[in-house]
Design brief:
Blueprint: H1 6-24, H2 29-38, H3 48-72, H4 77-101, H5 109-128, H6 133-151, H7 154-174, H8 177-181, H9 183-204, H10 211-229, H11 231-242, H12 255-276, H13 279-299, H14 305-327, H15 345-358
């Protein structure tokens, strides 16, 4: 099923681990260079700018091939343009296969053909079915899953998660108003199922190169679970999907449940992430808490925005200060000690950048009024006189 050499994909994981060990100081630069020379890996780019440049080049190449086929079939386009769109998708899949055989992996060129194939296929299905959202979502869900299993591209894992969610949403739409009313709860159950299933798969996973995709699905389920019960999201979707008219003195159904859900879930994420030392969940919980505050303030602006931001900043500063005081001496568990596997120079570089942009200068020591030198007294000074 997989198109790449499994050994080379495993070598990518080993090389990433060796790089992290080098940055953490466990191995030196020469040892890392020896390891990198011994591991054979596909052609790829870790630099996002270079990868984006090759992606644009791949888009130009893909569109040029599709344009060539359009020119040679110009006499048949009038009645068969729908078939031509399927041909564009086929070009994308054939191009992805060709680049994979040439050992391109995360290079940029292969990204353009893989994503382009999915996009043109979705357009072709939409044209043939007059925009049937359910059929488009199901088709992309299947093709993106097969593409991820074959090409191991993280973008396909994300596309699969989005397409699977869209398929479920369109399925609930087919049930009418009943499906739309219970949609938030169905999405919650779906995200919980994805979370625990991905956790189980991660524990029993034997192929390391699928780890990132499953971890992405796990993180996606956390975000989906929170958004499924967020008050602002549920209320706005109720107006958009059900055409609900919410009067000033009324509210949506189960409003108190969604109010509580909006704040309890982020707090649960934060507490659980600290107990389990889950950094990704910690970031998701922090962002969810910020969005929860925004969600309530969007409807109930009790204080002016300047006052609210000032109070929030003071509370955040106080919490951070006391957390640092409490954790800075801990050697195990939750601690404020620097992580050897993170780039500690990033904060120093950020500080230098901010200082340069604000025009700040290093602190200088004020010179004393007492004059030195000359050596006119005992002991001799800079003049060398006694």
């Amino acid at each position: 099923m997989i198109a790449h050499d499994k050994t080379e994909l495993e070598n990518i994981t080993l090389l990433e681990e060796a790089k992290s060990l080098n940055e953490a100081g466990f191995i030196n630069k020469k040892q890392f260079e020896v390891i990198s020379k011994q591991l054979i890996v596909p052609k790829s780019h870790n630099n996002l700018l270079i990868r984006a440049a090759f992606f644009l080049l791949g888009v130009f190449l893909y569109s040029s091939i599709c344009g060539f086929f359009s020119l040679i079939s110009v006499d048949l386009i009038d009645d068969n343009f729908k078939v031509l769109i399927f041909l564009y998708a086929l070009v994308g899949f054939i191009g992805a296969e060709f680049l994979t055989k040439q050992k391109f992996y995360g290079h940029g060129l292969d990204d353009a053909f893989i994503l382009g194939a999915q996009l043109t296929l979705a357009i072709a299905i939409g044209v043939y079915t007059d925009g049937n959202g359910l059929l488009i979502a199901v088709t992309i869900m299947v093709t993106s899953l097969l593409s991820y299993l074959r090409y191991v591209h993280l973008s396909m894992a994300l596309l699969f998660c989005l397409a699977a969610t869209a398929s479920l949403v369109y399925t609930m739409f087919e049930l009418g108003d009943i499906g739309k009313n219970i949609l938030p709860f169905v999405l919650m159950l779906f995200s919980v199922a994805v979370y625990f299933y991905s956790k189980t798969v991660l524990k029993n996973l034997k192929t390391a190169f699928y780890h990132k995709g499953i971890l992405l699905a796990n993180s996606f389920s956390l975000i989906l679970f929170y958004l499924s019960g967020n008050y602002l999201v549920v209320r706005e979707l109720s107006v958009a999907l059900l055409g609900a008219q919410i009067n000033p003195n009324s509210d949506i159904s189960f409003a108190y449940f969604f109010y509580a859900f909006t704040f309890i879930v982020p707090v649960g994420f934060l507490v659980y992430s600290l107990l389990k030392k889950d950094r990704i969940m910690l970031w998701i919980g922090a962002l969810a808490m910020a969005f929860s505050i925004y969600s309530v303030r969007y409807y109930y602006a009790v204080l002016p925005i300047e006052t609210f931001l000032t109070i929030a900043g003071l509370l955040l500063f106080a919490f951070t200060f006391f957390a640092i005081k409490k954790l800075k001496h801990n050697k195990t568990g939750i601690t404020f000690r620097p992580d050897r596997f993170t780039n500690a120079n990033a904060f120093m570089n950020a500080e230098a950048l901010i200082a340069s942009q604000l025009g700040l200068k290093p602190e200088t020591i004020q010179e004393s009024d007492m004059e030195f030198g000359g050596g006119g007294f005992s002991g001799g000074g800079s003049g060398g006189e006694f």
